[in-house]
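Let us practice reading a record.
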Amino acid sequence: MSNPLLSPVSSVTAILDRVDWNKAFIRVAIVLNAVGLLYTAYVYSVYAAYFGYSALAFIGQFLIGLFFLNVVVSNTDGLQVMLASVGMFILANSF
């Protein structure tokens, strides 16, 4: 009779059972929102290089991205984090 602790299926299941998926989801959302904010900042800097002071009109989109990142970092509720992440996704894809 084999030991169930040595089978790879039970060891993978044991590892997956110890993961706090809510924290993992929030950490991944923070990273993805930070990437979205960096992309928004990059696009804003390109606009500033091309249009100069006229690019100040787009600072609102960057501040909205900062707001979404703040919501994701400061909340632990999955629904609010997901809604802010969807907002950042829509914002980053609006360029």
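A brief commentary: The mean pLDDT is 85.
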